[in-house]
Amino acid sequence: MSQSDFKAVFVHLKAILVPFASRFTVTADTDELYSLDTKHLFKNGKPIFFGAVRRGKAYVSFHLMPVYGQPDLLDGITPGLKKHMQGKACFNFRAIDEHLFKELAKLTKAGIDRYKAAKYV
User: Fold this and answer.
1) In this predicted structure, what is the pLDDT of residue 14?
2) Is the pLDDT score of 42 beyond 90?
3) Interhelix angle for 98-117 vs 3-17, to 10°?
4) Full strand arrangement of the beta sheet holding 47-55
5) How many domains are there within the chain?
């Protein structure tokens, strides 16, 4: 895989988060990292991490924190998307997969809905 391939994957995954950016604080917006935090602060004064896309050397990672705190969000995901999981809240991709990216977009929207219900956004 070339870095130009990863750039295309990064752009596609970033497009999942960008429509929701106005609800969050954009903490990074580069060619390597796009990251969102809530505007809601914990008692320690720090915001809650929502999600990010990070371009690495071996793959592009999509981090989605709501699934870490509420793993039942993953109950309906397909085996194809599950195969891309690393850890509890990270999905790694080396190529564009429109079907899986659509599923990931739905999962992201479900995560936003959970954060809204908790009054984080």
Assistant:
1) 97
2) no
3) 40
4) 25-29, 33-41, 47-55, 60-64, 90-93, 85-86
5) 1
